[in-house]
Amino acid sequence: MGLWQADHVTGSASDPGDRFRDRRERKYGYDFIDEVLVRCPRCDGCAVVLAHPGPLEDGEAASTGVMNFRRRLRCRECGYFKDEMVGSAVVGGPVDPFFQRPVWLQTSCCGHVLWAYNVRHLDLLEAYVAAKLRERGDLVACAPASLVERLPTWLKTAKNRAEVLRTIGRLRSALPADG
Predict the structure, then answer these.
(1) What's the burial of 36, exposed, middle or buried (CB within 10 Å: 0-12/13-18/19+)?
(2) Distance (Å, rounded) from C-alpha 27 to C-alpha 37?
(3) Low-confidence winner among 17-26, 33-42, 102-111, 144-153 (lowest mean pLDDT)
(4) What distance in Å separates the CA atoms of residue 129 and residue 121, rounded to the nearest whole number?
(5) How far apart are the first and last CA of the chain?
(6) Does residue 107 contact residue 167 with C-beta atoms inside 8 Å?
(7) Regarding beta strands 4-7 and 19-22, do their DSSP bridges make them parallel or antiparallel, or are they unpaired?
(8) Is the model's pLDDT at 17 over the cut of 50?
């Protein structure tokens, strides 16, 4: 199973009575950086940052003990692409962890910025916010807090539920038609 599971007690994730179970398995949001939707540096359209599709070149294969991420930023609208090798990825904000481009899925909500790296990240936020019952999994000794435990209070507060869900709907409508 993954970080989260939305158990549908009645209907869809936005219906009353739904349950969200945090399995506490994933940490920090690294599970969402395999595909990050960003603003294209050339046309400002929706571009994507993915793992580079090609094999490593000779110089890249020799690691110095640092984790290397080989990524490609690609825009379908204007054809722009850029390859990058980075030694670390900083997650946790509305910029892509590799190219430092603003994420595509971000907008103002309740006086803050609501953002997501991709559709799966947006699905997680929606399932969590929509759930009337939020359950935590068993606490594992020395394990860091799960991603949903780290969500800001304003996003988790029931009084903001309707506005956050409306904002998530607006973000979904901003997704490109092809995916």
Answers:
(1) buried
(2) 20
(3) 17-26
(4) 12
(5) 24
(6) yes
(7) antiparallel
(8) no
**For residue 179, what pLDDT band results from cuts at 50, 70 and 90?**
low
Query: For the stretch 121-160, what's the b/e string if a residue is b when 16 or more beta carbons lie within 10 angstroms of its beta carbon?
Result: bbbbbbbbbbbeebeeeeeeeeeeebbbeeeeeebeeeeb
The per-residue pLDDT for 57 is: 57
Q: Is 23 helix (H, G, I), strand (E, B) or coil?
A: coil
Average pLDDT over residues 132-147: 75
Q: Are 39 and 107 in contact (CB under 8 A)?
A: no
pLDDT digits (tens, 9 = 90+) for 26-57: 555 677 889 999 999 999 999 999 988 766 55
CB environment 19-30: b (16+ within 10 A), e (fewer): bbbbbbebeebe
- Report the alpha-carbon distance of residue 28 to residue 99 in Å, rounded: 19
Let me know the angle formed at the C-alpha of 109 by 108 and 115, rounded to the nearest 5 degrees.
65
In this prediction, what percent of the chain has a pLDDT beyond 70? Answer: 73
For the four alpha carbons of 8, 12, 17 and 21, in that order, the dihedral sign comes to positive
Residue 156 near residue 163, CB atoms below 8 Å: no
